[in-house]
């Protein structure tokens, strides 16, 4: 499943939403848990797609880099360095051109070759 995670992150970094969606189960649960902006949750592939399309324009560039991964049967935890440059001002006061640098963990769960849950913590 490591190759599927790498494909997902490559698609994310390239802002290739169709490639990201191709790796998801129809009932994908996505959670983004942030210590600064709360929790965002979707529970279908359609909701995930809408969120991905909405957020892709926030960034001039973005990159997730794997620091460490632990693979299990049907799940993986991945420590990630996240870097991005904002393309526009955000409601939280961050301005276009500012750089974000975060470290977080993503937990991936899959079944039949598709992700059924992605939980991002930062």
Automatic annotation (TrEMBL):
<dbReference type="InterPro" id="IPR037401">
    <property type="entry name" value="SnoaL-like"/>
</dbReference>
<feature type="domain" description="SnoaL-like">
    <location>
        <begin position="5"/>
        <end position="117"/>
    </location>
</feature>
<protein>
    <recommendedName>
        <fullName>SnoaL-like domain-containing protein</fullName>
    </recommendedName>
</protein>
<dbReference type="Pfam" id="PF12680">
    <property type="entry name" value="SnoaL_2"/>
</dbReference>
<dbReference type="InterPro" id="IPR032710">
    <property type="entry name" value="NTF2-like_dom_sf"/>
</dbReference>
